[in-house]
Amino acid sequence: MKAAEAIIRFLQEEKVDTVFGYPGGYILHVYEALRKSDIRHILVRQEQAAAHSANGYARVSGKVGVCIGTSGPGATNLITGIATAYMDSVPMVILTGQVKTDLIGRDVFQEVDITGATESFTKHSYLVKDANALPRIFKEAFHIASSGRPGPVLIDLPHDIQESEIDWHYPPEVDIKGYKPTLKGHAGQIKRALKSIADSKKPLILAGGGVNLAHAEEALRAFVEKTHIPLVHTLMGKGALSTDSPYYMGMIGTHGYAHANRAVGMADLLIVIGARIADRAFGGTQVTDKVKIVHIDVDPAEIGKNVGTHIPLVGDAGTILDQLNEKAKEKDTAEWLSELQGLVKEIPLKDGRWVNPKRAVGMLSDKLSDTAILVTDVGQNQFWGARSFRDKPNRKFITSGGLGTMGFGLPAAVGAKLAAPDRQVVAVIGDGGFQMSLFELGTIAANNVGVKILLFNNSRLGMVRELQDRNYGKTSQVVLEKNPDFIKLCEAYGIEGVRVEGNDALETAIDKALSTDAPFIIECIVDPQESTL
Amino acid sequence: MNRHVLSVLVENQSGVLSRVSGLFSRRGYNIDSLSVGETEDPKVSRMTIVVRGDDYILEQIKKQLNKLIDVIKIIELKNDQSIFRELAMIKVKAEGSSRASIIEIVGIFRAKIVDVANETLTVEMTGDEGKIEAFINLMKPYGIKEIVRTGLTALERGNKEIKDHRKYEED
After folding, report:
1. Is the pTM of this model over 0.90?
2. What CATH number does the domain located at A187-343 have?
3. Contact at 8 Å (CB) between A148 and A20?
């Protein structure tokens, strides 16, 4: 069997039904085999979008996202998408074409060392030099991408390897000496964690993206409801607990809520679950040396990296929460809860001449179904989205939290919608990020992907504007002059939309967008001075 | 900034050295030397890495190394329980009267003269870093033309093997 055909069969063995990609000279054999298969290929308009779409697809489907690019520029265009997936621990397998084995290293046409270039932001990578190793490599790649702390794995496929003949087989199991992730929590540490919970007066859970990645939302809710311990979360941890839960205390971080950040400073026990607690998350908090920290993470390297830990618990978030749930006892936290609730301040919406983006997302959130998916881009829109979209058990919030990649929102929403065609998917984007991903309107139109775009147009890079105002008192290079007419632009692609210039027209526009299955854009004109928080 | 010696088992395949050395440079860890070679199992190589850092850095280095799929096992070799050796070759000027005294020092250090030319002697020596440094210092007055060193390599004393150690995460 041709190796290229075997590669497509490996994908089928891994239950891959959709791939995102862009063909080119040195990946042709794979594309020929793909053409003959029943795997759906979504032709993106630039490779970076293939990686972001695979990211959105993976996070919604719970499967490994797959994207394909050719050698050279095809591979380098994927890079930002790979780094984005790495920083948010998203399971992905990336296939790239490569020049013929005997030409590697000679700087021939469209040659680039992509395994070298992506070394520091792939979980693992392979440059295939022996076609007979392909079955093992694919089996390992999918296993590594999806187990332990998930992440992107790249397989670089030289042109001659793709067309060599191999015997068909696919190993049922993998055995990688250096890779055996710990999933179950250490019994002794579980005991210590339970004791510290029992001893604490003001315990607080800090949920990170690891809860969502481990699909541990149910186990977390059970833990919270059993122990009555309140919860705050990071940006990536959004969705770990419903916004309307009595134990929900909001998002921490530099763009989180003041009461949530203060709660971290007041707690005597912090149970960190699946968070690396980097600068943006702990930046706004007043965490003290007095707090005791239980840190649950599947990646041992995260424990003790950014904050000191008293009780490390290495393992899968869901498994460990189940272990804790078995023995955890009910706690009386009524006083502590009411103390925290006392900190919550209603932030009144300040309406003006233009659309208030916080009101717009809030209204959208009220009208969306209980299974809706909100995808944001990066910048002010990200926090307007994160702070006003209300989480429910079956909803989902997707953002580029770690790398903060502008241009992520639109292609990620495409991937999300293709993974769950029956769910509403809305992409919240600013006019900056939208113009970094405009080409994906082509993918949306060609495949009739029913994503709704909520575009906040303030004719500038709003978050940079805000930072410059605050730090320098002056702004520079943030005004997006001569923005196109976005509605007309979408119309050129056959995508319907409306422009909303004030709050009073919002409701009609949202109702209209949600009344169809087709893609739709609502362009909201926003005051350039609108604040993020 | 203490000095630590790590002994690391890795898969013997291309790309491993790049991954390990890349990890040190991008995370800003200080590395004094790295030596690598095949082991009793041809599929496995063993690296000896000499690093500098406090306890926090050392723990991070071990954990980040462990995250590399190709890394099979890491142990730290303690000074009092390990043998450290390095090989150096030193080409030193040896004309006229200095030749005899160089040969005398070589004898005292149990080093070996491996090449003799009309203007130079080339000395091979093995030992721990201290011994090699001391020898190099003694050769300096004669005029050192070239030095090559393999970097430190090390093995634990006694019957214990690296495979008898528990994996780092289980500690």
Report:
1. yes
2. 3.40.50.1220
3. no
